[in-house]
Design a protein that fits this description.
By secondary structure, the protein is of the alpha+beta class. The protein is built from 14 helices and 8 strands.
Length: about 400
């Protein structure tokens, strides 16, 4: 079945809806919370929880499923990527529950996010450790089984947890923690555990001071004899040598499937930031009397025109790769290769686009009088988190060549 790159009427409505939110609710707050790092953007959080998350009015038109999720990410990150990451949502924690949890677990942990009213809550995922970054299989946080209480005991430290502050301290939220239940088993011993906010033994150490996405809370969490009930283990404990045994385990592969869903979203976020810079640059050039001639022969174009056309081509290529990976998710097709391709392309493209926008605009682009320098700072993280540029290129090469990880590092 061919991929249709035309958006459905429902998705077009969603796109306009979220663009309006980005322009009216997010852009006016961009500089304020870039400067006020670690301060909760209450105006935005309250708006999103009470109004924004409801989405556009329901119509009879169909939407494009996961493609629409990526459209939302692009439009809202056109508004502000840091504020997008601070939205009260299940976020990566919810993706992990969806990827590796049972039907009962999905209902239990996700229902609060679907309920009307209440206070804003967050979900987060804790993977990275001081000694384990790109290689998720190298994590050292442990989960030991206590047969007397039928609980897991978590010990270790996690860093760079997006939304970790809200998810760990606001009642109703949760953090999905990756820990090993058997170090000798390697990847087979790694499991995911849902730790509810304010669980004794989970401590918020602090939040990172960052180059970009400064409105986002990127937390360090410590787990010190943190007890988690067995029903909060996502999937099965079958690969262990101790503790209860279940069947149907998705294990490490199930947890890693989280990235097949999250990487297209990150790619869409990158596309949104890149588009923000490119849109603004073109507007400024037009004010200066420079109109890009898309129909002119390359030899007749100015250097600036060639730069802008190249930037736009990079952006569109990233978007199409993103939509392809999202379309495959809709169809239930394995998209590990396509998700990594989209993430790698978009991370590289947005870094180049935003840097070039600052360069073309010159001193005013480098000044904080405009948001362009902020977009350049916000852009770089898209080339790092959810798998660095190098890691995603490795994944692409392994999938194309059909090599195991041991043969291509």
């Amino acid at each position: 079945m061919p991929i249709d790159f035309e958006l459905s009427p429902g998705s077009q409505i969603s796109q306009k809806h979220y663009h309006a939110i980005a322009a009216e609710q997010m852009r006016p707050l961009s500089r304020k919370y870039d400067l006020a790092e670690h301060q909760l953007p209450t105006e935005w959080v309250d708006f999103w929880w009470n109004e924004g998350r409801k989405g556009p009015e329901k119509t009879s038109a169909s939407n494009d499923g996961f493609v629409t999720v990526c459209l939302q990410a692009e439009e809202l990150c056109w508004g502000d990527a840091g504020l997008y990451l601070r939205m009260p949502t299940p976020a990566l924690g919810g993706s992990a529950v969806s990827a590796a949890g049972t039907k009962e677990q999905k209902t239990k942990f996700m229902s609060a996010f679907r309920a009307e009213g209440g206070h804003p809550i967050w979900g987060a995922m804790a993977i990275t450790e001081p000694q384990a970054g790109s290689d998720s299989a190298a994590i050292e946080t442990t989960a030991d089984w206590d047969p007397d209480t039928e609980e897991w005991i978590l010990n270790g430290t996690k860093i760079f947890c997006t939304a970790g502050e809200g998810a760990s301290t606001v009642d109703g939220g949760f953090v999905v923690v990756w820990a090993t239940i058997d170090k000798e088993a390697g990847r087979g011993g790694i499991k995911s555990f849902v730790v509810m906010a304010n669980t004794p033994g989970m401590e918020l150490i602090g939040c990172e001071k960052k180059l970009g996405i400064r409105a986002s809370d990127t937390a360090t969490l410590r787990f010190d004899n943190c007890r988690v009930p067995n029903e909060n283990l996502l999937g099965s404990s079958e690969v262990r040598k101790k503790g209860p045994t279940k069947t149907g385990d998705k294990g490490f592969k199930g947890a890693m499937a989280t990235f097949d869903a999250s990487r297209p979203i990150v790619a869409a976020m990158a596309t949104g930031v890149g588009r923000a810079a490119l849109d603004f640059l073109k507007e400024e050039l037009e004010r200066g009397g420079i109109i890009v001639r898309y129909d002119a022969p390359p030899r007749d174009l100015t250097a600036i025109e060639r730069d802008v056309i190249e930037m736009e081509a990079e952006l569109r290529a990233a978007r199409l790769l993103t939509w392809r990976a999202a379309w495959m998710m809709n169809k239930g097709k394995p998209n590990n290769l396509e998700a990594s391709m989209a993430k790698a392309k978009a991370g590289l493209a947005v870094t180049k686009i935003t840097q070039k926008a600052v360069q073309i605009l010159g001193p005013i682009g480098y000044s904080k009088k405009l948001l362009v320098e902020k977009w350049m700072r916000d852009a770089k993280i898209n080339d790092i988190y959810e798998g660095t540029q190098q890691i995603n290129q490795l994944i692409v090469a392994r999938r194309i060549l059909n090599y195991p990880s041991a043969m291509l590092r």
